[in-house]
Amino acid sequence: MEFNHKPVLLNEVINGLNIKPDGIYVDGTLGGAGHSIEILKNIPKGLLIGIDRDEDALKAAKEKLKDFQNVKYVHGNHDDIKEILEDLGIDRVDGILLDLGVSSYQLDEKNRGFSYMQDAKLDMRMDKTQKLDAETVVNTYSEQELAKIIYEYGEEKFSRRIAKNICEERKKCKIETTSKLVEIIEKSVPLKNNGHPAKRTFQALRIEVNDEIKPLYNCIEDCIDCLKPSGRLCVITFHSLEDRAVKEAFVQAQGVCTCPPGLPYCMCGKVEKGKIITKKPILPSEEEQEENTRSRSAKLRIFEKS
Ligand SMILES: C[S@@+](CC[C@H](N)C(=O)[O-])C[C@H]1O[C@@H](n2cnc3c(N)ncnc32)[C@H](O)[C@@H]1O
């Protein structure tokens, strides 16, 4: 299957990174290399490090970027950015991009089990070498755990009912396919409920399987630590929980005082690492939202190291 993914907020990212022609840049979510190819056009004397935890994405990116020699490909998790750069013998970089979440390719590729529109084995792993998959989550998590995940990561108000029905069904027979799960969700949710009834539960399971939220705050801190002075970090989020983690990590890195009010002097040991460039997140233009529906929930935040 062709790797099909339109880069979101492309011009805004390229401007936001403030690219130096001889700089070192990290694309921590290489995907189909839609952003990376534009970064590479701007760094004739620089280096790009492309990280993805999906080997299919790396393969597609290598093909797309075959004319560029100044790229290093890493199969890994950007949460490990410090170790990844250390292994490459690189101390600091000029810019980092994180375009979070899944690619359109991952969603559309039937065998990956991300889509509620196509029948497949319940999988949803971005990294196929990882152990935890959606089948394990659906068949082994407790009813309470499932309800919590579906509510928090999917913002699904019928989460408890869905979790209860999953647990009842799995007593009869293991839930192994996306279509079986969709059938259970459809029985649990009123049909006229804001889009496809399975959309929010599938999003929640994907976030849990790939542990997309919990490590994000620390990852942003680490990315900022890896920047050279004046280096920029651009992060595109698609979910309110992701955006909150990014915003909070940026505010902290800007050096907010967290002392209780009324103290005569600051005692929290705040550290100012740089400044937030985007007081409010940058959103896609109406034109982009029309052209690429996936961009509609995107938010870009930018931080500059001092
Ligand atoms: C939204 S897509 C990026 C698309 C890319 N910017 C483009 O324009 O083609 C996100 C990509 O990041 C990868 N990814 C998500 N979380 C990751 C993580 N923690 N570490 C490494 N790669 C990750 C996914 O496998 C996917 O290929």
Description:
By secondary structure, this protein is of the alpha/beta class. The chain folds into 2 domains: 10-101 and 215-305, Rossmann fold (3-Layer(aba) Sandwich); 115-209, DNA polymerase, domain 1 (Orthogonal Bundle), CATH 1.10.150. Helix content is 41%, strand content 14%. The chain contains 13 helices and 7 strands. Strand 2, helix 3 and strand 3 (71-75) form a beta-alpha-beta unit. Helix 7 packs across helix 10 and helix 11 (216-225) runs parallel beside helix 12. It is globular, with a radius of gyration of 21 Å. The model has no long low-confidence stretch (mean pLDDT 95). The chain binds S-adenosylmethionine. Residues 5, 7, 29, 31-35, 51-54, 57, 77-79, 99, 101-103, 126 line the site of S-adenosylmethionine (SAM).
Question: What characteristics describe this protein?
Answer:
306 residues; 13 helices; 2 domains; DNA polymerase, domain 1; binds S-adenosylmethionine; alpha/beta; seven-stranded mixed sheet; 41% helix
